[in-house]
Known about the structure:
Layout: E1 2-3, H1 4-7, H2 27-34, E2 41-47, E3 56-64, E4 67-77, E5 100-101, E6 108-109, H3 119-126, E7 130-132, E8 137-143, E9 153-159, H4 177-180, E10 185-189, H5 194-198, H6 210-225, E11 231-241, H7 243-254, E12 264-268, H8 279-301, H9 324-331, H10 345-350, E13 386-391, H11 397-406, H12 412-422, E14 423-424, H13 432-437, H14 459-487, E15 494-499, H15 540-543, H16 567-584, E16 600-604, E17 616-618, H17 619-622, E18 633-634
Parallel strand pairs: 3-5, 6-7, 9-10, 9-11, 11-12, 12-13, 13-15, 15-16
Antiparallel strand pairs: 1-7, 2-3, 3-4, 4-8, 8-10, 14-18, 16-17
Amino acid sequence: xxxxxxxxxxxxxxxxxxxxxxxxxxxxxxxxxxxxxxxxxxxxxxxxxxxxxxxxxxxxxxxxxxxxxxxxxxxxxxxxxxxxxxxxxxxxxxxxxxxxxxxxxxxxxxxxxxxxxxxxxxxxxxxxxxxxxxxxxxxxxxxxxxxxxxxxxxxxxxxxxxxxxxxxxxxxxxxxxxxxxxxxxxxxxxxxxxxxxxxxxxxxxxxxxxxxxxxxxxxxxxxxxxxxxxxxxxxxxxxxxxxxxxxxxxxxxxxxxxxxxxxxxxxxxxxxxxxxxxxxxxxxxxxxxxxxxxxxxxxxxxxxxxxxxxxxxxxxxxxxxxxxxxxxxxxxxxxxxxxxxxxxxxxxxxxxxxxxxxxxxxxxxxxxxxxxxxxxxxxxxxxxxxxxxxxxxxxxxxxxxxxxxxxxxxxxxxxxxxxxxxxxxxxxxxxxxxxxxxxxxxxxxxxxxxxxxxxxxxxxxxxxxxxxxxxxxxxxxxxxxxxxxxxxxxxxxxxxxxxxxxxxxxxxxxxxxxxxxxxxxxxxxxxxxxxxxxxxxxxxxxxxxxxxxxxxxxxxxxxxxxxxxxxxxxxxxxxxxxxxxxxxxxxxxxxxxxxxxxxxxxxxxxxxxxxxxxxxxxxxxxxxxxxxxxxxxxxxxxxx
Length: 640
């Protein structure tokens, strides 16, 4: 285990640890504050599965203090600790945990970094956190009455986002007790991220996709044991956001060995038009990473004859394998900073150039979800009911985060160059950039901060944010939806939404240009943005009905969250938790019509009233999918 306060003090000059995972606080303190005191504990007996069928384990959880009708079991291992020679290997399924109490979250998986915060802010945020390679745990919330009920409840399993580089189940807004109160059993799972979850290096015999296989191991454990917690093993809804949504899509459409482990899927804010690695691309990325790791390793072991190679599994390096800290340093700022290193920052942003992601290897992952269900020879797809959606302004945060440090790249001419490198136009008389910039003209956008310093975005950054949201998220989602509707002859329940609630908080700092901040958060109201943005990830505290957990907590990269929730927000949070649970229960309200392939979705936003329905809007029209983006094609990496 890494002690953040002491063990990483010497590392801050090279790396800043991300504040996204809060890790595991002191277990006793966490349990005391979370669990009802007195007679609030409950013990479940888990029977062994398969070869362990003659064995059992007792798992004790607690009644949640703010809702004693809900039981929580946190930090249950679903796989052996991926340590030693299990590092960079698929998870080893663990059927039975040790008998005992499971009241606190397990450790967050090893991860780095935030390039946008300084050392002092980072230390303030993550000092109490615990990161460890031993991190493969599930957390379960269940209505108390479900444990003895004759009919099990539907199960919802959540996969967190974080660009496949960060994330943790212990974020306070992932507390699923209120979602479980809607009449479902909810499970959240930790999985390996960054280099430890997605490194591929062929010469070193590291295959990649271990983070996805962690999901599958957890789903297997849930199938085998969730009945003991009152859940139905044959009625599981897998849901996730961002990289978690991308993971859900992969398991649903392109990972045949996962399909029997869940029956429904909810996909929130998946950048469907992003790309996954080919084996060659993943290997090149892995070779580059092991070169960085080897450099760090040699510095730390040169007095002991350190030997390493990017062509050798690091577990065989001499005189010892690399430490977790060394892996984190080697990941460095590139883990979350699209603009790290050399190259055109704007090009990296538009290409969504995240360094860690799954690889389409023909072994674990067979295809790209934007094409719908992959048909493997001899294996017919398992079609599933789907709920998919986007936030209204998904793309704004991605150029905003690096803008302050890399504003020199955000020019109209550079945008034109990058767009012509990425896209091909169908008409040889017009370039792709001409087509796109006729709809996203930088000069037509003024800064949303007319009364403050110009460091807070310019017209090019705004244009890029809008086109990323439209192309990468909205049109990508509609393309996938339309492929699925066609593939299934529109016979399955498929629902779609746009989340458009004005922000009641911001996960991000003013360094991101403030584009995601609530308008009411601005001390100087004359400087507030001219419009609000419903940014990436904003729907999460609504889905879990946990808005109040954001008050007084830290933002993704440092300072306190600006929390300005209203009754309208609280009403919407209750309704969205109910709707997500209703989907899992196959009880969607009549007013939410099924998606029919015509680009129309339900818009989720609330101005204060208690609603029984929400309006339908045309995302295809708003995002220019048919009129622009579907007419363009992407160039290959070799053509750029």
